[in-house]
């Protein structure tokens, strides 16, 4: 599977995935040593298990529970 295939699949489905309640991120990754799409969720629920397809555009998908993800505040350089 080519890198472009994964990028294309993720680009095509990212908005749909990110609109699901509880989804906090998506990424290209490796699953069992093979390229895949990871979908990061606050909590792995039955509703998310059913809503997230296991394969998108021929690319395997894995769900990973991460808990909430927050942006770190920007650090200002010392003066």
Description:
This protein has helices at residues 3-18, 46-51; strands spanning 23-31, 34-41, 55-56, 59-65. It is of the alpha+beta class. The chain has one domain (3-65): Alpha-Beta Plaits (2-Layer Sandwich), CATH 3.30.70. A four-stranded mixed β-sheet has the order 1-2-4-3, with helices on one face. A hairpin with a 2-residue loop joins strand 1 and strand 2 (34-41). The longest helix is centred in the N-terminal third of the chain and has 16 residues, at 3-18. The model has no long low-confidence stretch (mean pLDDT 90).
State the CATH topology.
Alpha-Beta Plaits
CATH architecture, by name, is 2-Layer Sandwich
Q: How many helical stretches?
A: 2
Radius of gyration: 15 Å
Question: How are the strands of the largest sheet arranged?
Answer: 1-2-4-3
In N-to-C order, the SSE pattern is HEEHEE
Strand count, sense and barrel status of the largest sheet are: 4 strands, mixed
Structural class: alpha+beta
Q: Characterize the overall form.
A: globular
Mean pLDDT over the residues: 90
| Total number of strands | 4
The percentage helix is 25-40%
Give the CA-CA distance, first to last residue.
49 Å
Oligomeric nature of the chains: single chain
Classify the beta-strand content into a percent band.
25-35%
Which CATH top level class fits?
Alpha Beta
Give the structure's gist in a few sentences.
Helix content is 28%, strand content 33%. The protein is of the alpha+beta class.
